[in-house]
Structures
1.
Amino acid sequence: MKKRLREDYKEFKIERGVFDNITLMTLYELMNKGYFNEVSSIVKEGKESAIFLGKGKENVAIKIYRTHAIDFKTMWQYLIGDPRFTKIRKNRHHIAYQWCLREYKNLVIASEAGVSCPKPIIAKNNVLVMQFVGDEKPAPRLIDVDASRKDYLFILDQIKILLKADLVHGDLSAYNILYYEKPVLIDFSQATTLKNSIALELLKRDIENINSYFKKIGVKVKDSQKIYEKFLKMVKK
Ligand SMILES: Nc1ncnc2c1ncn2[C@@H]1O[C@H](COP(=O)(O)OP(=O)(O)OP(=O)(O)O)[C@@H](O)[C@H]1O
Ligand SMILES: [Mg+2]
């Protein structure tokens, strides 16, 4: 098991810059605590993170935020706009940890509110462990399936439930929704509270993104401005 992780480490350090020493220590610690027994295959490599399948009693998704080569300036700006994260140092590690913590906290709020999203398990430094959506492979994304009007309405409903829990996803698109029996919202690192001055702008963009996607695939959609206004009324009550 350890050997396997070391081999991955070498590979990723050189090729991808995901694992630094602290990340490796964090993975060992989480593994020793039993959150997973093995860091298995890489699921997806993004700009800000890499996602692995963690094997254990249950499969988990391990999202490792990069501490190198990412756009920290933008991340820092996004973070300090969130009243929950105002004291953010301009330090790469600190920013990556806070970004990871924010995704964890957002997932806690979302899943407690009953939103269809992966259940968060633990966040430590730049490593987030959550429920794996899919079986051995990740579930397809919304863009990879034949989505229906029912799915469209379901997603609008998830936005509404999130809003009631004082959260706006902020990066909602057919790429950040998986399909596992029903749509499952993922990638909550940008999600923010309504107290953030850009929250309503993000809400509007989320609605427009979802609307234009479904419109594009031929699903009858509601007027996005009307949805936005209806949702606003709901939160202002
Ligand atoms: N909980 C999960 N279960 C299964 N697969 C997941 C999970 N979370 C993420 N993934 C997989 O990893 C991909 C990227 O996840 P996510 O959007 O959270 O990361 P990201 O850093 O924003 O990547 P990108 O820059 O590509 O948007 C998803 O499309 C999905 O394939
Ligand atoms: Mg994403």
2.
Amino acid sequence: MDVRIGLVGAGWMGKAHTNAFVNALMAFGPDYGKPVFEMVSDVNENAAKNASEQLGFSRYTTDWKDIVTDKKVDVVDIATPNAFHYEIAKAAVENGKHVYCEKPLTLTAEQSVELAELAKQKGFVNYVGYNNVMNPANAYIKELVDSGRLGRIVKFTGTYDQDGLLDESIPISWRHINKFSGSGALGDLGSHLLSISQFILGNIQSVNALSKIVIKDRPVKEGSSELAAVENDDVISILANYENDALGTISSSRVAAGRKNFLTYEIQGTEGTVYYSLERMNEVNIYFASDNAADRGFRQVFLSPEHKGYNAFYPTAGNAMGYNDMKVLEAHELLSALSNDTPYVCDFEFGASIDKTVDAILKSAKEKKWIDVSKKGGVTV
Ligand SMILES: NC(=O)c1ccc[n+]([C@@H]2O[C@H](COP(=O)([O-])OP(=O)(O)OC[C@H]3O[C@@H](n4cnc5c(N)ncnc54)[C@H](O)[C@@H]3O)[C@@H](O)[C@H]2O)c1
């Protein structure tokens, strides 16, 4: 079945999504949905025109409304800055389109819950790009936890750190301004870690957070001496209490010297522990307390065809998967949902559950108190 795509936003993620659709067709074949690149939109006309020529879209426009109303578009693929996700996704669903939206779903839990309810009511595929959920390593770790082999889960510890914004001469961008991004390191990076932890352990019940802006002003453009204020968190630390009673310590930084894509976490249970880092994407480290006393120690498991998704790329164990492969698995899951009605994890409801946690964390950091995630507006607990 042909799946006709209308892409909105032709930046990094727009290109990554298109690459992922092409490679999903290569890896899985047309029975799981054949992407057709119908139309691309970007507010920057050059970006839209270049994307049309380089990525193979038949038509381009500078107005996303052309895409959500186009009769030849089946799925609207949203890869704009965060602030535009809500309006575009809502208009797409109202115009009878399926939606594939980058994370975070919207700027607030309220907007995300509204979108989740609307998409459910209209019955369209509604997918959010929390690609780490598609990483075979994280799926394997979820299987380990669900199987009970690690015992009762006691603690989740994780951080997602990068140093991409450590240089204070880097100009201000949409990522630093709340009306475009909603939050800083938390929404950009930390939400990925939250998506993994909530995928594996379930929802967080309450949070207590502390955040800091480390670089308070940035040049308005490259080389300029005129500065603009950074509005959101460069660094954030969170104490979390999961609904399953596990304790969490979670953090994120976009100014972490030396850390490039340091998404790392450990899950400790009463019968074992697992730890993982995205910088060592193909290695899962596991300890089982049930091993013979003399043999006890962490074992390193390389990804292999035994792990869900891996054999789309390699028939033998120990080959290296990379970031774009997660997006290929994501594109496949979406195409398959569209063409074969298969189930998927990262729907708008899942996206809204992350945004509820993000909202509670921001409120806690602001009001300096514990916030209950599940209650609207949050309460002190
Ligand atoms: N899943 C991931 O791992 C991951 C990684 C990076 C970014 N993201 C998400 O992807 C989204 C885009 O991020 P990016 O890094 O590609 O940003 P980017 O700045 O590289 O690209 C955004 C593009 O959107 C265009 N744009 C802005 N407003 C628009 C509008 N109203 N209509 C059409 N086009 C518009 C811009 O001109 C630009 O070309 C963000 O929501 C971000 O959080 C996700």
